What does this fold into?
Amino acid sequence: MSLSSLHATQVGRPLLPLALALFSTVVAAQAPAASAPTPGVSALPATLQYQSPLTNYRRYDDQAVQPWREANDRVGQIGGWRTYAKEAAPQPSTGQAPARDAHSGHHGGASK
It folds into this structure.
């Protein structure tokens, strides 16, 4: 019988006990060692404390709704959406030159 005609289970079957023995030693090595308790140190705190995550909960309150036309007019007076976009964008400091290219630091600065 040639090696190529053997089925995979026939080849692996003799190795199964060896694999199980090695696996059991690895599992035993992973078990934590029992440590002796340190004298004078308690394993548990003296008193247990619990704070509910709902302690600082605030109930939802309805907000006053204004007519949408007035809200749109107010936004137009302020300067429109561009004003809000400028507020949200980070402003460069006066002593710092603006960056030439935001992507210049990627891939070693090489541009293609």
Summary: The radius of gyration is 35 Å. The longest helix spans residues 16-30. The mean pLDDT is 75.
